[in-house]
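hey
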């Protein structure tokens, strides 16, 4: 992961061994990013996720999804 990507991720996702045993979570919350992926996998909307977890900001969720998409696409291209 590049320093630029790491810096961008810092405001979106936090990984702290003292919080949720180091599970990646949305910065400023105790909501694991995996929860958003689980909602989407179950066919739920972003709005439903945000309603269930109001401490997660819409922009955080969107930026996380965009970064995950970019990472996946870059791995597919480099394969």
């Amino acid at each position: 992961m590049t320093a630029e990507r790491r810096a961008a991720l810092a405001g979106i996702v936090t990984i702290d061994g003292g919080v949720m045993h180091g599970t990646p979570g949305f910065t400023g919350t105790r909501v694991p990013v995996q929860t958003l992926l689980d909602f989407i996998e179950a066919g739920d909307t972003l709005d439903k996720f945000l309603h269930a977890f109001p401490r997660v900001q819409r922009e955080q969720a969107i930026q996380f999804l965009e970064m995950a998409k970019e990472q996946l696409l870059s791995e597919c291209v480099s394969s």
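The first helix runs from residue 3 to 10. The mean pLDDT is 89.
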